[in-house]
Amino acid sequence: MTKIIPPKKAPAENLSRDEVRSINKKKNHRKRKVKRIMALCAFALAVICAGVALVLTVFFRIDNIQIKIDGTRLYGDKEIIACCGVEIGDNLFMVSEKKINETLTLSMPYIKSVTIERELPDTLIIKVVSATSAAAIPYGDGYVVIDPDGKVLDNNAPKVPDGVPKVNGLKAVEPVEGQMIDIGGEGNRDDLLEITMAIRDSGIEDLTEINFVRKGCFELKYDDRIVLKLGDMTNVFEKIDLAKSTIDSKQSDPGFAYFVGTFNLSIEGQLTISASGNDNETETEDTEATTDESGDIISSEEDESSEDTE
């Protein structure tokens, strides 16, 4: 196969004066064209920068800050605005949602989360979700109040807040408001938070105590009269759901308001009820009930009658 070699360009000294002038003219034209393009690009960039600067300094300045609260209002609008770091006159688009969220949730522990909305041309809306108290742990002469996720809401509450269960058997370690709780004992914090999150998700109310029995084993107390024995941490969410559904089903029974006893949920998928007499009685007789496959309560008397029938 024959290789084709392109003809070599004629040396410059072999070109005529007109040919050299023509070549130089084309080169100069290309250079001027490139310079014009670069100048246009620089001008366009300058215009864009000027526009951005104009927007940031003249337009979309904040003239109104609104606060919207989802949950219990524990802080005033003026407190939140003063703490968030945003001021009237700031640019609406330079406000950082992440920074506001971090600032408010740390400085105001009873705020769970913050989002913002911009309403053109000059309104900033700060949406606040309030934190909920999940447990109170004795600490010093007071209590440490935490939310379901373990954030310290108050490290020196004088008493247990209304509707919040007291934690017995666990020790808080140097709690700092706005930060995660530290609990003495390996794994105890994770277990406690699993309990508080399960309580939150189930929606069960009127719990008065969360009792640490031993490592990985907890009991709850409902309305200061019913002990919910959870056993180990296996399927603790399902156990608390079962306890709540059982309590809800018993609310229609007028006698349930006076019931004192135990719900044993330590056996997976099973709930056993032991009802005790009043404390002023010298003798008490426990009666038991278990749930059937549908979750309904079967009393021990029904069990005996069914056995007699057989």
Largest sheet: 8 strands, mixed
Give the integer mean of the pLDDT values.
84
**Which strand order do you get reading across the main beta sheet?**
7-8-9-10-11-12-13-14
How many domain regions? 2
H-E string: HEHHEEEEEEHEEEHEEEEH
Strand content: 25-35%
Distinct helical segment count: 6
Give an overview of the whole structure.
- With 310 residues, the protein is α+β, with helices and mostly antiparallel strands.
- It folds into two domains: 64-130, Ubiquitin-like (UB roll); 135-309, no CATH class.
- Helix content is 32%, strand content 26%.
- It is built from six helices and 14 strands.
- The chain has helices spanning 17-57, 77-84, 97-107, 188-202, 236-250, 300-309; strands spanning 64-70, 111-119, 123-130, 135-139, 142-146, 152-157, 166-168, 207-214, 217-222, 226-231, 260-264, 272-276, 287-291, 297-299.
- The protein has an eight-stranded mixed beta sheet. Strands 1-3-2 form a three-stranded mixed beta sheet, with helices on one face.
- Strand 8 and strand 9 (217-222) form a beta hairpin.
- Helix 4 (188-202) packs parallel to helix 5.
- The longest helix is centred in the N-terminal third of the chain and has 41 residues, at 17-57.
- It is elongated and about 120 Å long.
- The termini are far apart.
- The relative contact order is 0.06.
